[in-house]
Amino acid sequence: MSETRTVTLDNRDEAVQLFGQRDAFLRMIRDTLAVRLIARGDTLQIEGNPETVDQADRVFQQLRTILQKQGQIQPEDVRTVLSVVQHGGERGGPQSLGVLDSGRFLRPRTDGQGRYVAAMREHDVVLAIGPAGTGKTYLAVAMAVTLLRQGTIKRVVLVRPAVEAGERLGFLPGDLQAKINPYLRPLFDALNDMMEPEQVKRYLENDVIEIAPLAYMRGRTLNQAVIILDEGQNTTVPQMKMFLTRMGHGSKIIVTGDITQVDLPRTTRSGLVDAAHRLRKIDKIGIVHLTEADIVRHPLVQRIVQAYEDEGAKKRS
Fold it and tell me: pTM here?
């Protein structure tokens, strides 16, 4: 049984970018998925069996998202999206993450998450930008734990800036450790979901896993480690530069954040926004944009995020 589906693009310029130079991307998609692609102006017709037509449609929608966020598409983007759509997070596949202590197999649940996991495997520096609920922090911690278990790295360092909406550390009760614990709670939660609490405790006591505020990173060089900066949108430009230069030999850096939720003073530029722009053309640095389609929390979260974005768009127009 054959199926035909038509993708309507915004304009001819989008089609040129999406199809690649001399239709190179079209040929790559056609040959990989064994579909027939017919391009006419700003429309694209996909023909083939229902499964491969659906895969091709998903590939083009993912590539359109990348083009919208990055302004261009690279051959590597096409290869990654094709791999994600074909193989997803199947066990042993390039986007799989492994088995948790509970016996549950951990895999990406959306195409965007699959691109994110692939980027973490392929690059030593990854910036993951997206709204709440898209799994940015959870998947980063999962990748770090996977590499730790495989013996690829020796340490996991989880970092957060101690900046939250309307709060200052000095107003919180207790000593410094008590003050910073609320900021690090999401990282503890992710760890405890992947490992037995006793093992997490042993790793913390032996410095195999370290959880620290961003200020503690200054002057350090970390080798054979995965270093994760959560809530990266709340760093300043100098702080982000300081953090990114902590990477030593055999290490990976992963920065996550939601650039619509910046809690810095209005006049202060977000270090994550700056880094995504400044580093976008550097090879071996992966910049992944997740969207509302990648939200995997309660279904209402996606609708809540969309409602706030719609309201923000009205105010800007």
Answer: 0.73
